[in-house]
Structure formats: structure tokens, C-alpha cells
Amino acid sequence: MSHRWTDLSISVLASVVSVLLSWPFWRDYQFWPESQWAWRIYFALGFVLAVYVFHAFLGSMRELFEHEEG
Fold it and tell me: What span, in angstroms and rounded, lies between the C-alpha atoms of 63 and 57?
């Protein structure tokens, strides 16, 4: 159970960093669309997808290393 919370915490932290790195502020708002809601939905869905991908990656890496030990 502890590994699951650790993986989830790392996944959320990595996703927050990913969103901050892709925020339009760093690019002088060059890619900011006319619809602010579309942009917010894009970032929200991207964040959820990033958490899922990071979590799946960490879980598969943990399983890979557990099989390597045994």
C-alpha cells in the first residue's frame, strides 16, 4: 500500500512540473488560444493523463525490478 501512495505522489509531482514547463507564460503567451476554457480543459485533461502515464510507468518499473531480483 505504501508503494502505491509513493508512486501516486511522485506522479502528481512530475505532472505538476510538466504543466508548469508547458505553461504559455514561458513562451510569452504565443500559443494562448482565443478560448480560455478550451485551454483550461486542455491542461486539466493533460494533467490527468500525465498522472496516469507516470503512475503506470513507475508501476511497471517497480514490477520489472521485482522480477529481476527473484
Answer: 10
59 and 7 Cβ atoms separated by less than 8 Å: yes
DSSP of 32-66: --S-HHHHHHHHHHHHHHHHHHHHHHHHHHHHHHH
C-alpha cell belonging to residue 69: 531480483
pLDDT in tens, 29-39: 566 667 778 87
C-alpha cell at 47: 494533467
Task: Give the pLDDT confidence of 6-55 residue by residue, as tens digits.
Answer: 988 999 999 898 888 877 666 665 666 677 788 788 888 988 999 999 99
pTM for the model? 0.74
Residues 6+ positions from 22 with CB-CB distance below 8 Å:
43, 46
